[in-house]
Automatic annotation (TrEMBL):
Transmembrane regions: none
Record keyword Transferase present: yes
GO molecular function: CoA-transferase activity
Keywords: Transferase
PANTHER family noted in UniProt: SUCCINATE--HYDROXYMETHYLGLUTARATE COA-TRANSFERASE
Listed name of the protein: CoA transferase
Organism (species): Emcibacter nanhaiensis
Coiled-coil portions: none
Superkingdom, taxonomy of origin: Bacteria
InterPro entries in alphabetical order: CoA-transferase_III_domain (IPR050483), CoA-Trfase_fam_III (IPR003673), CoA-Trfase_III_dom3_sf (IPR044855), CoA-Trfase_III_dom_1_sf (IPR023606)
Length: 404
């Protein structure tokens, strides 16, 4: 793990301020991307336990692994939005911000008096991103959503799993995390538009829309064939060989995308004649002979160790990979070279490892992200620096239980 020397350049969004109403995963992932790009993200949390994920076990010294995972680089301020004074305080903050991100169900922010219409009247330049399971309209818009529900309704769950087996949930909660991809993309587009128009915009991000948008060629395959694609495990519906092959001490991934790669695979397994074999010399023929082709390759790989196969396939420029666990993935030389794990100083846990921001800007050296904040860690600083409140005013708000 490496720690960069701290510099003054936070990232390309330095100077952009975000008011973050999000909780759990989809919204916090979106705000996390903005923080990674250098924005100042002020995370609003309710009194008591704060973001629900602070209560998700397992814990270390009272801090949740879940919260720490997706809230690096942010500030935490505790405000009671059930009080008129709390809502008024947040409106004052919104007037000083460029972006609002929220992921409550449609209608909740309006009931709080913090909807786009209200806040944009205070700050016409405000970009307001609303992230929800199903978006602002449609028959499902009022329903709660969870990652597995989105995977099921999007079609993604139906194509994940082994052939002839039950559908299997994606190990990564992509149904939620898609909000952390599409939300920032839309926000950055609106931020650019604002440089031209001078006005902000309301953004409606549906997680279901986002996951359906990621179906990619599988959706087009259904349009072409009029049939639902079936799960193929680690294989590809149309490319062979492609997927997991057995080794003496585990498995290896081999991915053959073109005929050029097919020739390299044949040479690597000491069967160069197969490259010109009329049974297997096109993508379509190999797809239709999937079991035969996979059996030929499996016979070769099953007699060798994973590392030997990795070396062999790499030597022949065949796309391949061992199947790494999370710990090995984060400690592999490529991850180390890219500084994807760094140490940061947490207020209560001391030095902790965290996953680093995925954005790199050659020629610039950004500081290590600040650790995820403890609940309310930045309340006083935000109120003083953003709103210019005096210590006496802050103390009165605390005494009145508006902030904590």
């Amino acid at each position: 793990m490496q720690q960069n020397e701290k510099t003054s350049w936070a990232g390309p969004l330095q100077g952009v301020r975000v008011l973050d109403f999000t909780r759990v995963l989809a919204g916090p992932a979106a705000a996390l991307a903005l923080a990674d790009l250098g924005a100042e993200v002020i995370k609003l949390e309710p009194p008591g336990s704060g973001d629900e994920t602070r209560t998700f076990p397992p814990f270390r010294d009272g801090e949740s692994h879940y919260y720490i995972a997706i809230n690096r680089g942010k500030k935490s301020i505790v405000v009671d939005l059930k009080s008129e004074a709390g809502v008024a305080l947040v409106k004052d903050l919104a007037a000083k911000c460029d972006i609002v991100v929220e992921n409550y169900r449609p209608g909740v922010m309006k009931r709080l008096g913090l909807d786009y219409e209200t806040l944009s009247a205070i700050n016409p330049r405000l970009i307001y991103c609303s992230i929800s399971g199903f978006g602002m309209n449609g028959p499902l818009c009022d329903r709660p959503s969870f990652d597995i529900v989105l995977q099921a309704l999007s079609g993604a769950l139906s194509v994940n799993g082994e052939p002839d087996g039950l559908p299997t949930k994606l190990g990564i909660p992509l149904g939620d995390l898609v909000g952390g991809i599409n939300g920032p993309i839309a926000i950055l587009g609106a931020l650019y538009e604002r440089t031209i128009t001078g006005k902000g915009r309301l953004i409606d991000i549906s997680l279901l829309d986002g996951l359906m948008g990621m179906l990619g060629y599988l959706a087009q395959l259904a349009f072409f064939n009029g049939e639902d694609p079936k799960p193929v495990g680690s294989q590809h519906p149309n490319l062979v060989p492609y997927g997991l092959f057995p080794a003496k001490d585990g498995s290896i991934i081999i991915a053959c995308l073109t005929n050029a790669f097919w020739g390299r695979v044949c040479t690597a397994i000491d069967r160069p004649e197969l490259a010109e074999d009329p049974r297997y010399d096109t993508l379509e023929k190999r797809r239709d002979s999937r079991e035969e082709v996979n059996a030929i390759i499996s016979e070769f790989t099953s007699e060798r160790n994973v590392q030997d196969l990795v070396d062999l396939m790499t030597e022949h420029q065949v796309p391949n990979a061992p199947i790494l666990g999370i710990t090995d993935a984060l400690s592999q030389p490529q991850a180390v070279a890219r500084e994807m794990v760094v140490e940061t100083e947490h207020k209560t846990l001391g030095k902790i490892p965290i996953v680093n921001r995925p954005f790199k800007f050659p020629g610039e050296q950004q500081p290590v992200p600040t650790a995820p904040p403890v609940l309310g860690q930045d309340t006083d600083d935000v109120l003083a620096e953003v709103l210019g409140l005096t210590p006496e005013q802050i103390e009165k708000l605390r005494a009145d239980k508006v902030v904590s």
